[in-house]
Amino acid sequence: MNTLISVFSSPGRKALLALALASLLPGLLAQERALTEQWFEFKPADDPSGSVFDATSWLDAPAGRHGFLQMEEEDLVFEDGTPVRFWGVNICSRNPFSEKEVVDRWVSQLARYGVNGVRFHKFSSHAYQGNTSTIPDEELYRKFDYFNAALREKGIYYGWSHIYGHQVKPADRERLLSYDEIAGLEYPWSHLNGTTSSLVNFAPDLQDLSIELTVNMLERINVETGVRYADDPALAFIELQNEDNIFWGAIGESLKQAPTYRELLCRQFSGWLEAKYGSDAELVKAWGRENLPGDQSIRLKRVDPSPNHGVFSQEYRAALEEGRVMSRHILDKMRFLYEKQVEFYDRFAAAVRATG
Questions:
Q1: For labelling, which of 10, 84, 255, 330 has a CA lying 20 to 30 Å from the CA of 307?
Q2: Residue 271 CB neighbour total at 10 angstroms
Q3: What predicted TM-score, i.e. pTM, was given to this entire model?
């Protein structure tokens, strides 16, 4: 959709696009009706165990019996070579910390419908201990332990997509370059307010929070199973973060609200450019003065890498249309940002693997 908006930017082109879509609409609707007219509404009922619809016996229980999940080229297999495919659901927010009777009902229902995977999603910020953001709350995680153990027993694997914006807390203040800037961040999506979203991808102090929280979760021993989470093969995956990366368009507004972190990013990029070009004079030769507005320079450590995918996609399209190579300043920015993103992920993954 962003591509269409950018390409058809003039009023005449917008009108042309609107007419084209309007002419196609009746045919598209008719096609959709033809495809869906034989559909029926799926209303999963709380069927009793043993009914003709009960797929519980299809599950290979308990989860983890074949060892840890691995990748072989494009396939998922367990350690003993057993292949697997997952049909799963999301359980998110506060729901991973539900009461036992709720968990029992949900797990039984999932098993009856043959679900063999659960993605626990965006839940960690709902279960911090006190004013910290890296220590799991014991009472709530005992409920989480029960949920994971119940899934495991039925043959349902689980994974953690636990961070969708790491919410900072007062105990984090002394650890951050600017706690107030992060705590005061506002996004168009209120659930991300006061989180490390977008900025975490280049800022080591913010990364430390997410990494420490995840390691603490993995080091926890499930009180129901007696198994440390890092040692539990029923834990199929760890998602480092949800819907976030250094090219995300929201980062521009984040940097405006967090000047300390904008300064950090510019220092990082300026250092990267100095290692590549050696001096401002050589940088100007490569980039052109027009691409270093204001006081941007290596010497002042103020070169802005413009971390927004829109800038790069616009240049990419222009280069294609004009039959030329993309501008050097754009290529350098893209390369630097890519390296920062990979640096974060490599650091995070190494910490996860170090738990065992």
A1: 10
A2: 14
A3: 0.87
